[in-house]
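Slack export, channel: ligand-projects

TW: morning all. Re-posting the request from yesterday since it got buried. We need the structure predicted with the small molecule present, not the apo form. The ligand is S-adenosylmethionine; the SMILES is in the block with the sequence. No rush, but it would help planning for next week.
GE: picking it up
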Amino acid sequence: MQNEQASRTALLIATSLVLLRHDPKYSGLVSKTSADLCAQMLKTCSLQARLLLKVVQQGWFRPIAKLMERVTIPGIFLHYALRKKCIATLARSALTNGARQVVVVGAGFDPLSLELQLDFPDAEFWEIDHPATQRQKLRALPQPCAERLHFIGVDLNATALNGGALIKSGFDSAKRTFCIAEGLLMYLEADKVSSLMRTLNSLSASGSEFAFTFMEKQNDSRIRFDSQSKLVDWWLRRRGEPFVWGTTRSELADLARPWRVVRFFDHNDLRGLGSGLADELIAKGEVICLAEI
Ligand SMILES: C[S@@+](CC[C@H](N)C(=O)[O-])C[C@H]1O[C@@H](n2cnc3c(N)ncnc32)[C@H](O)[C@@H]1O
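GE: finished. pasting the full token output, ligand included:
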């Protein structure tokens, strides 16, 4: 990531949620609260983000967005929305079944913890992110922000996650926790991925769960979405966010240890999360893994 600039991919995801919410065909996939929170964050970002926000809410822009998607990663907008829906459902189920803490690593502009803290008044939430992205998010949040929502800024490619920082802000290793790393691990070196998994595991009580996404290595070992164009490879490199880590489902069981892999959700599973998606293109290549301890 570029050190002083908020993640461009996080901005893109927030924008795509607003876009889908305003599209009558897909609006049911993104809650109004989520879309409003994303819009609030985009508004405070930059003039460019504010303009983009205005444009993606207009009907005339939809065919242009479709075309842009087709020449970059076909099906990526639905992938983002369904990935979020899947992880939100897992988090809600964990909280309903007794988890009392949620840690979101690489949270970006994801509104999930903001939404969950409204619905689960007994739970505490932590967002850990690159300082440049987190600064931008904090600017957008209402002051004072929710008391049960804590923020820790760290560049995970430069420094390992420090459990002490979590504990200092009230994290309790005896409580069941739901950890999330969505759309993050592909930006970290392999040793940083293992170290993050071990740290989260050592901090989590028995019965805790971890939902994370990973890029599934292609046959030629390249790390990218199946249909990703060269234009996207170039853009990610230029923005300082190239994908550097990917793996296979079989390698992951070893790599994630001591987490135990419970199940994977790929593009076919995501398709089942919405109605009328049977013939829709959903980008393939990033898989969600649910693991437990
Ligand atoms: C693709 S965005 C995903 C954001 C969010 N999880 C979502 O799905 O909407 C990638 C996120 O990873 C974070 N990230 C990338 N490299 C990082 C690093 N070295 N240290 C900490 N966070 C990093 C970015 O700041 C950004 O928030």
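GE: first-pass observations. The mean pLDDT is 93. Residues 157 and 188 are 6 Å apart (CA to CA).
TW: perfect, thank you
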